[in-house]
Amino acid sequence: MKRIVISGTYCTGKTTLSLALSFATGIPSTHAPTMREILPDLFPRKNLKQCSYPELLRLGMERFKNRLEAESGLTTGFISDGCPLQEWLYGSTRLVTGAYPNENKWSMLWKKIKNYRQYRDFELLMRGFEGLAKTYTKNNYDLFFHLPIEFPFVEDGHRPTSERFREESERMLINTYPTLNISPIYVTGTLENRLSIILDHLNIVSKITVEEAIMLSLKVKKDQFDRIALE
Q1: Given Cys at both, which of 23, 91, 180, 202 links 138, Cβ 3.0 to 4.6 Å?
Q2: Residue 231 pLDDT grade (very low, low, confident, very high; cuts 50, 70, 90)
Q3: Whole-number Å distance between alpha carbons of 221 and 101
């Protein structure tokens, strides 16, 4: 059994597809806790928009740690909802797009000049975190299925992300694959098409119908993931 990653940037359907694939194959799925789950313990009374660059990095590292702990217990293989590249991208994309959806290159430039030392320190810390995330990703997964941006970006009122943020992180992710000798399999189309394509590639006959696997995945996502309260 392989260590499979459902990869892609934000709001591309990774969670739903990884759950559906797990129901269809019987392979366990693993999900790192979301930022909104981690935030109250690390930085009480703050939302993500109020977090400084170092605090965002701390959140990413905590998510990375929780991901590793979850995967370490699945010794016979698993389906991972994303990988540590997502934790790295969350912070590194901020260096390009800024911390708020409405920032532009001029406001970014002004903030870099005004807070030069803080920005420089964050950039150095991100380089170290980048090395950890890339090394783990390269050595601890066997197969990557990449979900490109096909669906409209949905604001959740929580994460300070935007379509620009999503497109920039997608560009960085795609450029990172070859540097790690990763050749992802691009999976496109509807959820049904995506699941069928992956099952064909794995040469696995679904234990239940594709429709049943998707129905179950949508229910679990609604009950266990979407119920997490926003600030």
Answers
A1: 180
A2: very low
A3: 26
